[in-house]
Amino acid sequence: MRLPVIAGFALLNLPGNVAAATLNVVVVDAAGRPVQNAVVSARPLGVPASGPRFASTKVMGQRNIQFTPGTLVVPLGSTVSFPNYDKVRHHVFSFSKAKRFELKLFGRDESRSVLLDKPGTVAVGCNIHDAMRGFIRVVDAPFAGTSDAAGRLSLAGTPAGRFQLTVWHPQVRARDQEVTVIGSASAPVVIRLPLSR
């Protein structure tokens, strides 16, 4: 689905032989407030596909009866571990199309892991603690990141030229939001997301 509102573009049409750069992105809601935990992935257009070029922790812990981090982005084919730092046991599961799994009761200082072999969103819960919710975004694009509390993220090493940004957030009704950007920019690309409350 095309992104409905995009503002603040400052784009350069750079030649293909320019060195890689950093693409800075700011994600805001319809009122212009920063959006934290938006996952942005970038796929260069017109160049051969390449493997992931972004760092990922591949760990979603349980601490203080919540998943931490609450939103995680990992490359396709990653094995994500779920260490338990709480004094209570957890029973982590997902019924998501991208990955169905069940990690039965495990206690403090124990960990379980899952191979994520399909792209998409994996919504994670705990069978013991209903309020626990987490999201893992599995991407097959070479560049990806998650916005911080100011709605900002930087995608380092992006090539000059055209590429497609895909933006995901748990409060956006549409499955994915996409926009094609040309080149790298000195000013950040600002993306507005219509969040449901």
Describe this structure in words.
The chain is mostly beta strands. It has two domains: 5-50 and 142-193, Immunoglobulin-like, CATH 2.60.40.1120; 61-139, Sandwich (Immunoglobulin-like). Helix content is 0%, strand content 48%. The protein contains no helices and 17 strands. The protein has strands at 5-7, 21-29, 39-44, 61-62, 67-68, 71-75, 78-83, 90-95, 100-106, 111-116, 120-126, 133-139, 143-146, 152-158, 162-168, 177-182, 189-193. The strands form five sheets. The chain has a five-stranded mixed beta sheet with strand order 6-12-11-8-9, with no helix packed on it. Strands 1-17-2-14 form a four-stranded mixed beta sheet, with no helix packed on it. A four-stranded antiparallel beta sheet has the order 13-3-15-16, with no helix packed on it. The protein is globular and about 50 Å long. The chain starts with a strand and ends with a strand. Mean pLDDT is 83; it is low at 1-18.
